[in-house]
Design goal:
The chain is mainly beta. About 15% of the residues lie in helices and about 45% in strands. It has 5 helices and 21 strands. It has a 17-stranded mixed β-sheet that branches. A hairpin with a 5-residue loop joins strand 2 and strand 3. The chain starts with 12 loop residues before the first strand and ends with a strand.
Length: about 400
Amino acid sequence: MKRHARYFGMLVSVLVVVAGCTPTESADGEQRLPVYEVVRTGPSASQVTALASELSLGEAVTFENAIVDFFAPERFAYVPTGATEVGSSFDEEEGGVVTYEAIDFGALDALQIPTTDEAARQLGSALDAAGLTELFPQGGSTQVTQETVFEWQASGATASSSVVLDARVAYDFTLTDDRLPLLGPGATVYATFDGDGATSLRYAFRGVETGEDVAVLSDDEAMSRCSDALGRTLGEVNVSTRMVYYAPPLELGSVAILLPHVECSGTATVDGEQVALLQQLLPAVEDANYVPNAELDVLVEGADVRADVRIDGGRAPTRSRGAPPTSISRRLTERRARRRSTPSPAVPRRRRTRSSRPSPTPTASRCKPARRSTSTRRSSVRACGRRSGACETSAPRTP
């Protein structure tokens, strides 16, 4: 980031790209989208039990803050290993036995991993049997599948080999008739499978229903705010926006509505190279019935500081964090009084000493020719019905 500092303060040329679906317009030309009322947060305890039974997860499933979690670290993306022909030897320097292990390529080739289609059907059937697909938006869920692929190439070989370690299935969600994306930690459903079943699972979702239409930012205003958020001082910036809905974490139990947001993304040209900018979400609604407005009044009288916060609009409950004005004033006054009355302690001088201990001698290590390996993911997209486990591949997808 240091080499980018010289670009601060430069004029910027912004290229505009507006993506996504167009909100409906009212008679006065305002763009409007519906808000979504939360009718249910997470599954019930009986549904969690049913889901664990369908996937044979046993008692390892956790259910906290309305979130279902499962993870088997000993099986997740497992690569089998075993002793090599070298066996074990005695290390004279360390005084212990050294055991050599390497990847067991025979066991690796023997792994039986379900296909992405099989994994998608397994997760869809389990969610449907537990009644958890009923929370999904009508016609607004899509299964996205990936494979974890382990690749290697032996020393001196010209060709590489590969094997699938697991299959992952996740859900993408959309809202409204225009299929606007629903993003965020409060809309997360996925599972990973190996030959013995699920190795990971997460279900964090709220059931919602359509509320009233509200005015949202115009395309021009959304672009202007995104340009400010991404930075107008990085040279030539390509900015794109799209309208989405944001689902906050389920740990926030007071969430009652889901509001439209503007997703800001873009690239900048720095030192002749194109770099991707960090995506940001900005609220697209300014209606006081949904978005609170906070006003802060500060009064300074010598060493005393008094502050008052007023919150207007929004939906209850709203609260402010911080100390009351009287305690703020009293704390600042007492702190300054202590500084006047308490002498500063003497600061001990730090002495530097040289160590006579010799520096450690590096030890030689014995190595075998390594096999290079990489892990990649292949993905595809499947469009699914609300209560059906059947899916059809529609297009490749980059994870």
